[in-house]
Design a protein that fits this description.
By secondary structure, the protein is mainly α. It contains nine helices and no strands. The protein has a domain of 137 residues. The protein is elongated and about 80 Å long.
């Protein structure tokens, strides 16, 4: 009898547990979120929701878009080349490289951004022009800056691919989706050329150290261990950071 009572108690406990689980699973854990255009037949409401979604997407990508239309690309690549040419992997760290590149970018882009502020942002905040007019006015200084440093070969490439047959009278007439990628690859080429020039003196130091070690029969000693202090000393004696930053600034 005791065994039967225990068995019946276990079965009743399992049934109660299953019933409680069904009731718990039947209740929604989170409230349902309805998208604004699912249950509406108003085209204006759907269009407004789509505009909000597009605006949020653009705002999430805005920092990267703005950075790529400035001098940041060339600066950060040249600084990275400088660190690699010396042979240092983590000094200066990435935070210092990016921070210095941002401050140099602010310095170089200050005249362009001041023109954008005067011609587009200030009149728009004052209610003198609409958003479309402000965007058009803001594009003009940025296009002039990018067109000044974009190579003609790169511009022709994207104009040909974009099927732009009419010859523009100035950079302001070139669409932004054509002049921006042309400017970016032009900056990359310029940065790689500067990086190649930076590598030459340090490569000479490596060759001299390697030749000296081979002539002394010290083949088991890695040349990088000997050349590293000499490269750092050379960079410090010639005031390398001043020369690198000066060459970047004078390039604009």
């Amino acid at each position: 009898m005791n065994k039967q009572r225990i068995l019946i108690g276990i079965v009743l406990g399992l049934m109660v547990t299953l019933c409680y689980a069904e009731v718990s699973l039947g209740q929604p854990v989170l409230p349902q979120i309805e998208i604004g255009w699912n249950n509406t037949s108003d085209p204006e409401q759907v269009a407004a929701s789509l505009r909000i979604l597009a605006l949020i997407t653009i705002l999430s990508l805005a920092p990267a878009i703005l950075i790529m239309t400035t001098a940041f690309t060339r600066i950060v690549v040249v600084l990275s080349f400088t660190r690699s040419a010396i042979g240092l992997q983590q000094s200066p760290p990435n935070q210092v490289i990016i921070g210095l590149a941002l401050f140099l970018t602010f310095y170089i882009m200050a005249p362009t951004w001041n023109e954008v502020r005067q011609n587009a942002l200030t009149p728009f905040l004052a209610g003198e022009i609409t958003m479309e007019e402000a965007l058009t006015a803001a594009e003009q200084p940025v296009k002039r800056f990018m067109g000044k440093y974009a190579r003609n070969e790169d511009l022709r490439l994207f104009m040909r691919i974009g099927e732009m047959t009419t010859r523009p009278a100035n950079y302001e007439e070139i669409p932004l989706h054509i002049i921006a990628p042309a400017f970016i690859i032009s900056e990359l080429k310029t940065a790689f050329m500067m990086g190649f020039i930076l590598y030459i003196p340090f490569l000479v130091v490596d060759m001299i150290v390697a030749s000296t070690l081979m002539s002394m029969g010290m083949l088991m000693l890695p040349p990088i261990m000997i050349s590293m202090p000499f490269k750092i000393l050379l960079f410090v004696l010639v005031d390398g950071w001043n020369l690198v930053v000066k060459s970047i600034l004078t390039g604009y």
